[in-house]
UniProtKB/TrEMBL annotation:
GO molecular function: pyridoxal phosphate binding; transferase activity
Cofactor section: pyridoxal 5'-phosphate
TM segment ranges: none
PANTHER family linked: 8-AMINO-7-OXONONANOATE SYNTHASE, CLASS II AMINOTRANSFERASE/8-AMINO-7-OXONONANOATE SYNTHASE
SUPFAM superfamilies: PLP-dependent transferases (SSF53383)
Family: Belongs to the class-II pyridoxal-phosphate-dependent aminotransferase family. BioF subfamily.
The organism of origin for this protein: Alkaliphilus peptidifermentans DSM 18978
Subunit structure: Homodimer.
Listed name of the protein: Glycine C-acetyltransferase
Length: 381
């Protein structure tokens, strides 16, 4: 098997696997050069926060590098349980379980909780981890048109022969920053007595008046919500969670292979998550203000320079790039000005709908934004 390198040959550029030799500060180092980071998901700029690093070191010194066991065995330390409880309370659900990644959470969830006579209705543009997880089951899978409640309801009307129905979507579709109307999804899930599975990876730590994610906006309760999220984006750490009602989560804690057969998250990461939640709880309005200010300024700059960007309320700026070659060329132009971006081409996005994603995180100072604006203008003019 060989990697198709035709785009790299045509553009003399590869936007992937750029090796950095620094952490995520206001700039990152690649070789001897400094780059402005618009590529990472470090939305709140907390990945190198000294308070979080210090808390991680305290946990590291107390527990060591690893507990060298799965959560069901020797990996279940008091810090692990405390962080699970804290996360569940943060997202306003009964209970949560921690996994090494949200990809593992989504991959394993459906096989653990669905049976042959169940129906899984999943958004056409859902993350690959959700789709792959659904495909690993014996249940019936149907895709509904992207964020299309009317099409979803048509499929739900034909649910009679199925025992359980699962509606699966994301809170924020990260390529373009599109946000779902969570209340409409809860309403339709309740109407048809369906489970609602929502991946809030790009919402937790960002959405809502306190940064508690998509569920902070709900107007009605629904006891069949299953929530997953990455802890490596807004929460600036590592790992993933599944959260829901007590009965479901107790079942998952014993029957999810990705949980019970994976070494538990290491203490340093648990310490980091623990402190990050405290910081978001106490400082979110100030941090979010910086994030929104930086994001708005970046979008304004790009619009002035006639870039075709996707409109969204999220701090995600997505440039419409057309075909894959054009996407590589745009990314190369940014890179030549020492700006890191994220490039999405097929199969991650539909053919000729490539995107260049930029996230101006809350950690960028005014002088960083000034420098960024100068570099983008130089690139275009």
């Amino acid at each position: 098997m060989k990697v198709d390198k035709s785009l790299e040959m045509e553009t003399d550029f590869n936007p992937y696997y750029k090796m950095m030799n620094s952490g995520l500060k206001t700039t990152v180092n690649i070789g001897d050069e400094e780059y402005i980071d618009l590529a990472s998901n470090n939305y709140l700029g907390l990945a190198n926060d000294e308070r979080i690093v210090k808390h991680s070191i305290v946990a590291l010194k107390k527990y060591g590098l690893s507990m060298c066991g799965t959560p069901i065995a020797s990996g279940y330390i008091d810090l692990y349980e405390n962080v699970q409880f804290k996360l569940a309370r943060f997202v306003n659900l009964d209970r949560a379980v921690l996994l090494p990644s949200c990809y593992q959470a989504n991959n394993g969830l459906f096989k653990a909780i669905t049976k042959e006579k169940d129906l899984i209705l999943i958004d056409h543009y859902a993350h690959s981890s959700l789709i792959e997880g659904a495909q690993a089951t014996s249940g019936k899978i149907r895709l509904f048109l992207h964020n299309n409640i009317l099409h979803l309801e048509k499929l739900l009307e034909k649910r009679e022969k199925y025992k359980n129905v699962f509606i699966v979507t994301e809170s924020v579709f990260s390529t373009e920053g599109e946000v779902i109307d969570i209340n409409k999804y809860i309403e339709i899930a309740k109407k048809y007595s369906a489970y609602l599975v929502v991946d809030d990876s790009h919402g937790i730590g960002i959405i809502g008046p306190q940064g508690k994610g998509i569920l902070s906006d709900i107007k009605t309760e629904h006891d069949k919500i299953i929530y997953t999220a990455s802890l490596g984006k807004g929460l600036a750490n590592q790992g993933g969670i599944i959260a829901g009602n007590n009965e479901l989560m107790e079942y998952i804690s014993y029957y999810l292979p990705q949980l019970i057969y994976s070494t538990a998250l290491v203490p340093a990461v648990l310490g980091g998550i623990d402190k990050t939640i405290d910081i978001i709880t106490n400082e979110f309005p100030q941090i979010k203000n910086k994030l929104d200010r930086n994001s708005s300024r970046l979008k304004s700059i790009l619009k002035q320079l006639k870039f075709d960007i996707v409109e969204t309320s999220m701090p995600i700026t997505s440039i419409k790039a057309g075909n894959s070659k054009n996407a590589f060329t745009i990314a190369k132009n940014f890179y030549s000005k020492k700006i890191l971006t994220t490039t999405f081409i097929t199969p991650s996005v539909p053919q000729n709908q490539s995107r260049i994603r930029l996230i101006a995180n809350a950690g960028l100072r005014e002088e960083d934004m000034n420098k960024l604006e100068d570099k983008i203008r130089e690139m275009v003019l």
